Amino acid sequence: MNWIISFLKDERGLEAVEFLTAAVPVTGGAAVAFVALKEDIAAKGGTLIETIAVTPGTGP
Fold first, then answer.
1. Which strand (E) or helix (H) includes residue 52?
2. Taking the complete model, does pTM exceed 0.70, yes or no?
3. Whole-angstrom distance, CA of residue 28 vs CA of residue 21
4. Exposure check for the chain: N or C terminus, fewer CB within 10 A?
5. 3-state SS string over 21-33?
């Protein structure tokens, strides 16, 4: 019975758990945002490439 109380009072390793608890929602939020915005990012990237593209032989 004493080992259970000792185990519950032991705070070693809690910092890693706290870090993981904070990191998971941040990473998940970034992934959700990227998935939601990926088509817009691709479209704007294509537009940017078309805008700055130089036809060979017609340089500035």
1. helix 14-52
2. no
3. 11
4. C
5. HHHHHHHHHHHHH
Number of residues assigned to the chain: 60
Q: Specify whether the CB–CB gap between 54 and 60 falls below 8 A.
A: yes
b/e map 22-52, b = 16+ CB within 10 Å = eeeeeeeeeeeeeeeeeeeeeeeeeeeeeee
Q: What is the pLDDT of residues 7-59, one digit of tens each?
A: 777 777 778 788 888 999 999 999 999 999 998 988 898 888 888 877 666 65
pLDDT at 30: 94
Angle (CA) 42 47 53, round 5°: 120
What the block records as the tokens of 41 is 């990012």
